[in-house]
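As described in the Methods, two query proteins were run sequentially through the folding procedure within a single session, without resetting any intermediate state between them. The first query and its resulting structure tokens are shown here.
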Amino acid sequence: MKSMIKQLGRVFLVSMAAIFGASFITWYAQATDNTESVILAGGCFWCVESDFDNVPGVLDTVSGYTGGSVNDPTYKIVTAGGSGHLEAVKITFDPDIVTYQELLEIFWRSVDPTDDGGQFCDRGESYKTAIFVNSPEQRQDAEISKELIEASGALKGSIVTPIIDATTFYPSEEYHQDYYTKNPIRYKYYRYRCGRDERVREVWGDQAYRGISEH
């Protein structure tokens, strides 16, 4: 009965969002203080931010750096290598609309988790994939999600994406935030030239970008 009530609640909220727009979901989550967050590294944070902004139930995305040992890192420091930091995105979401487990399912299918050298045209440690977990519960869910993907046989290679305890997340420079909306032509050109969408579809086939409305 409880699960049915929760599902009906999700249907109601999605319906309201369809009528009044995504701002309704943001208002509702803020009013009820019903938000959670996850930090994901999937290569270029411009692209990860763009993808997850198109997931119903995602309230906010922030590009940044995490996982390394350098305090207050900059884009120049991180992309030079050696800092240990990865480009990542902090995603705030309403669990009544989209669950943590669902976000992980979407994440896997928006990257190449078999690539240990970076993502697509972006090479080096700062562009590697990772899931940063905030609690033992998130770690357990992430490990189960990873195991299920590996057992499904959907991928030709092994998953190399690590599951890491979250540390300090440093928001990136302002010009990186919402880059895809501030510089749409440059962003689309970069994404196309980098081969991101082509490779994701090669890796995942018809499962690619499942759950992302713009795809």
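Immediately afterward, the second query was submitted; its sequence and tokens are:
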Amino acid sequence: MSVSAFDVRKQLAFYGAYHSNATNILIHVVFVPVIIWTSKVLIADIPVPSFVPAVHYTFSDYLAFDLNWSAIFAAIYLAYYYILEPTAAALYTPQWVLSTLTAAAFTRADNHVQIACVVNGLSWIAQFVGHGVAEGRAPALLDNLLGAVVLAPFFVHLEILFTLGFRPEMHKQLKNDVGVELARIKKIEGDKKRAAQRKVT
């Protein structure tokens, strides 16, 4: 990520500029959590280094904890969100923890990899349809893969909070920031098209 990785306004302005269409935002609100959950299921099977202690605890058939890559990445993501916006991150923590615990429990199922792969793939297709049809432009991950993948869950969470009235002044500022960023991106894209046309002629 860029030097502004810990500036919540700059990070969300970047991501928001690729998600200004209401339909595309709704698609993300539905499918980003699904992508995150299925990704937690899939990376849970990746072996961790030998120095990582083996911790496995089952609360119920639907809630479990394993100290694996899924839990490690979940902790890193959440720590980053606390740096960006502590209050919003605190409100997000219960959902994030529940997602991690249910994903760990689901890995106990024999066919968890196949199911997670199918659901994850369909969710990504929905995302690309949202960008191609509703937004009319390429997704953010094509310009900043790491930033887009890390920011997506928090962006969706904040969109829901803003709809419920969370920090209206911050929401207003971000809308302005997104407008400026969107204009900058469109200018760059326009300059590239004009340069390509000049080469052809």
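The first helix runs from residue 8 to 16. We note this only descriptively and draw no conclusion about the first query from it.
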